[in-house]
């Protein structure tokens, strides 16, 4: 069996997934110490989705993320040091410490923003796609939302608009089974979120979100379709989160041993590594090298974030407007 | 003598001239052209009251009809603004913000700040506001105080055709999100408007009538009602100064204070509901910063704390009129005379 992915692409995909995993696992530990302000929503377990989608995008392409956005940010190329500092509320953060975990954005990387309002990113992504179309650029935009977000009217309206305007926009529904503590089997009226695509006149695709290669293949088709000007696709990525809705969530709504079993049998990083080694695409030494580099990166990011300065009093009043008299 | 055109024509002209000048300007909203997907004419309406009529034929790629989908198309305008475009998004009636407030309250207004000053959202939301068309409770509100309350937004309420053109051009060129409010009762108002492009800066109130006895502070359609009251009062030898705020965010605090320092008397006139309103905000400002100059209590003339009624008999009572303003002025002017 072969893959059309090059060795460099495979190494990059693993690096992205490993970086997200280590970033989130470390935040899980650090958050418990009380040093991180506010609350964080971890992406661990869902890495293959972010990596598989973003493998098709460049800096001219945009994504709109949600509250569970760290993975999307890392995969889109946002600086890990700046992200960690932001989550710690430091002046050196990508938003100067004024956004935090739920509002990490980097326009230069095409990262429109994580978002604290569920579903709100979908119209923003459609708007970025409209901007691409009006400017005649090749850029596409991707809206990420979860099973919870898939029930928001903002997502429905964005899908309808993107479809009637044939916008280069993709809708990626990351269905991890839970909107906070509410099960998607109950909250989503149809069997699969992807079925809703029919109502908006676009293809709907279901993909195994634990399988990087499946996500990569499905998104390849959808992104190319969008770039050709043929309009949006709804891709439902079925996956699981390893942690709660937010850190501190006791997850009593989940089944006994559910997360333990997921970690043992559905870990997208382990599955990726097994596949690559079984097929002879990458060897153990290559994985171990990346593991070591990422571990050091996260260690350095946390160390710096902890020692970096906080914003100053003057920062309270800055950047409300570009100019306001 | 400059030519005279209507408030509505002034808005149309500003849009056309800016779209000619800048390819990144586009218009999106329901029926801004009118007729998309219908068997008859395109540009059939040019906006529900015809304000954007004629723009589609000149800019077919940049005048975009949207379906009834306020969250969707307002959100798209916000997203496009962050990616190098200058959308002018028409919400039709400002009341419809109930459908899509999140995209302005939590998205556009917050981006600059929460993203650390690295995102620019040059967006204009155009919307009709105000009572008087017998359009009832869901098509007649002001909501200016609600907008003004939100940091990150600018709020513009032109009272004349001249300001409508110059402030819309400023709004389009401005790099922050601007709520541009058009009083529907002013659309047919005629006024002198230069043919060339010009801007009217935000945050500079207009002294539309100089006077020494009482300061009347207002904005939007009420500027004209205040001027009518001032003319009537002049016949009773009461000389009112009328200040048109033009924008409620930014607010020209200095001009308000300067006028009250001179007259010692203030009547704030606001067509919106009275609680937490522009009227109460300005009253608080003057009470805090010019208390020593006041020679009488501050008066407010506002709509009552009710929705806008339908029947003309009730709506006419709801909207502040010249008689109410005159009564308020006489109340405090009398105190001066007694003293």
Automatic annotation (TrEMBL), chain A:
Gene Ontology MF term list: pyruvate dehydrogenase (acetyl-transferring) activity
InterPro entries: DH_E1 (IPR001017), PDH_E1_Alpha_Subunit (IPR050642), THDP-binding (IPR029061)
Taxonomic superkingdom: Bacteria
Required cofactor(s): thiamine diphosphate
Annotated ranges, domain Dehydrogenase E1 component: 17-313
Signal peptide boundaries: none
Keywords attached to this entry: Oxidoreductase, Pyruvate, Thiamine pyrophosphate
Matches recorded under Gene3D superfamilies: 3.40.50.970
GO BP term (any one): pyruvate decarboxylation to acetyl-CoA
Annotated protein name in UniProt: Pyruvate dehydrogenase E1 component alpha subunit
Source species: Pseudomonas rhodesiae
From TrEMBL, chain B:
Alphabetical list of Gene3D superfamilies matching this protein: 3.40.50.920, 3.40.50.970
Keywords: Oxidoreductase, Pyruvate, Thiamine pyrophosphate
InterPro entries hit by this protein: THDP-binding, Transketo_C/PFOR_II, Transketolase-like_Pyr-bd, Transketolase_C
Entries under Pfam families matching the protein: Transket_pyr, Transketolase_C
Keyword hit for Oxidoreductase: yes
Keyword Oxidoreductase: yes
Taxonomy, superkingdom: Bacteria
GO function term, MF aspect, one: oxidoreductase activity
PANTHER family, per database record: ACETOIN:2,6-DICHLOROPHENOLINDOPHENOL OXIDOREDUCTASE SUBUNIT BETA (PTHR43257:SF3), PYRUVATE DEHYDROGENASE E1 COMPONENT BETA SUBUNIT (PTHR43257)
Function: The branched-chain alpha-keto dehydrogenase complex catalyzes the overall conversion of alpha-keto acids to acyl-CoA and CO(2). It contains multiple copies of three enzymatic components: branched-chain alpha-keto acid decarboxylase (E1), lipoamide acyltransferase (E2) and lipoamide dehydrogenase (E3).
Name by which UniProt lists this protein: 2-oxoisovalerate dehydrogenase subunit beta
């Amino acid at each position: 069996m072969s893959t059309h992915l090059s060795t460099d692409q495979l190494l990059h995909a693993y690096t992205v997934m490993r970086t997200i995993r280590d970033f989130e696992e470390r935040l899980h530990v650090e958050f418990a110490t009380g040093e991180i302000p506010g609350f964080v929503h971890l992406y661990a377990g869902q890495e293959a989705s972010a990596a598989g989608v973003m493998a098709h995008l460049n800096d001219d392409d945009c994504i709109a993320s949600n509250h569970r956005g760290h993975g999307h940010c890392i995969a889109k190329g946002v600086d890990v040091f700046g992200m960690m500092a932001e989550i710690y509320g430091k002046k050196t953060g990508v938003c100067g410490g004024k956004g935090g975990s739920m509002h990490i954005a980097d326009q230069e990387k095409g990262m429109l923003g994580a978002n604290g309002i569920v579903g709100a990113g979908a119209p923003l992504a459609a708007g970025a796609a409209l901007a691409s179309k009006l400017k005649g650029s090749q850029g596409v935009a991707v809206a990420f939302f979860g099973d919870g977000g898939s029930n928001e009217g903002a997502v429905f309206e964005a899908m309808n608009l993107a479809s009637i305007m044939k916008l280069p926009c993709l809708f990626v529904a990351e269905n991890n089974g839970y909107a906070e503590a509410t099960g998607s089997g109950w909250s989503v009226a149809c069997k699969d979120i992807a079925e809703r695509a029919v109502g908006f006149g676009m293809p709907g695709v279901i993909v195994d979100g634990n399988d990087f290669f499946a996500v990569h293949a499905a998104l390849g088709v959808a992104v190319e379709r969008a770039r050709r000007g043929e309009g949006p696709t709804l891709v439902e990525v079925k996956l699981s989160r390893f942690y709660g809705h937010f850190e501190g969530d006791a997850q009593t709504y989940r089944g006994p041993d559910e997360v333990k079993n997921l970690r043992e049998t559905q870990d997208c990083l382990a599955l990726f590594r097994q596949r690559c080694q079984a097929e002879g695409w990458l060897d153990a030494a290559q994985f171990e090298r990346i593991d070591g580099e990422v571990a050091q990166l996260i260690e350095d990011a946390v160390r710096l974030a902890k020692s970096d300065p906080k914003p100053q009093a003057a920062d309270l009043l800055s950047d409300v407007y570009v100019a306001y008299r | 003598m400059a030519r005279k055109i209507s408030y509505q024509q002034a808005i149309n002209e500003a849009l056309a001239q800016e779209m000619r000048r800048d390819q990144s300007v586009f218009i999106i909203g329901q029926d801004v052209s009118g007729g998309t997907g219908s068997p008859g004419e395109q540009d059939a309406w040019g906006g529900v009251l015809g304000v954007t009529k004629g723009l589609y034929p000149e800019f077919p790629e940049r005048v975009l009809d949207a379906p009834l989908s306020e969250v969707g198309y307002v959100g798209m305008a916000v997203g496009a603004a962050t990616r190098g475009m200058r959308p002018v998004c028409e919400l039709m009636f400002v009341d419809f913000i109930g459908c899509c407030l999140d995209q302005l309250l939590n998205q556009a207004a917050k981006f600059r700040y929460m993203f650390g000053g690295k995102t620019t959202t040059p967006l204009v939301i155009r919307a009709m506001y105000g009572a008087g068309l017998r359009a009832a409770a869901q098509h007649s509100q002001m909501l200016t105080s609600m907008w003004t309350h939100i940091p990150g937004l600018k709020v513009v309420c032109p009272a004349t055709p001249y300001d409508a053109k110059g402030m819309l051009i400023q709004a389009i060129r401005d790099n922050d999100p601007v709520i541009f409010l058009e009083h529907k009762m002013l659309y047919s108002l005629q006024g002198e408007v230069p043919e060339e492009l010009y801007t009217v800066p935000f945050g500079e109130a207009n002294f539309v009538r100089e006077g020494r006895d009482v300061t009347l502070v207002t904005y939007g359609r009420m500027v004209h009602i205040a001027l009518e009251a001032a003319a009537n009062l002049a016949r009773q030898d009461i000389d009112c100064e009328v200040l048109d705020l033009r924008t409620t965010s930014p607010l020209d605090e200095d001009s308000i204070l300067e006028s009250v320092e001179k007259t010692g008397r203030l009547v704030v006139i606001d067509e919106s509901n009275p609680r937490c309103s522009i009227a109460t905000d300005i009253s608080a400002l003057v009470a805090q910063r010019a208390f020593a100059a006041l020679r009488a209590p501050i008066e407010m003339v506002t709509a009552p704390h009710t929705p806008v009624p339908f029947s003309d008999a009730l709506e006419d009572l709801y909207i502040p009129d010249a008689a109410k303003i005159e009564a308020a002025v006489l109340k405090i002017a009398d105190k001066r005379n007694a003293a």
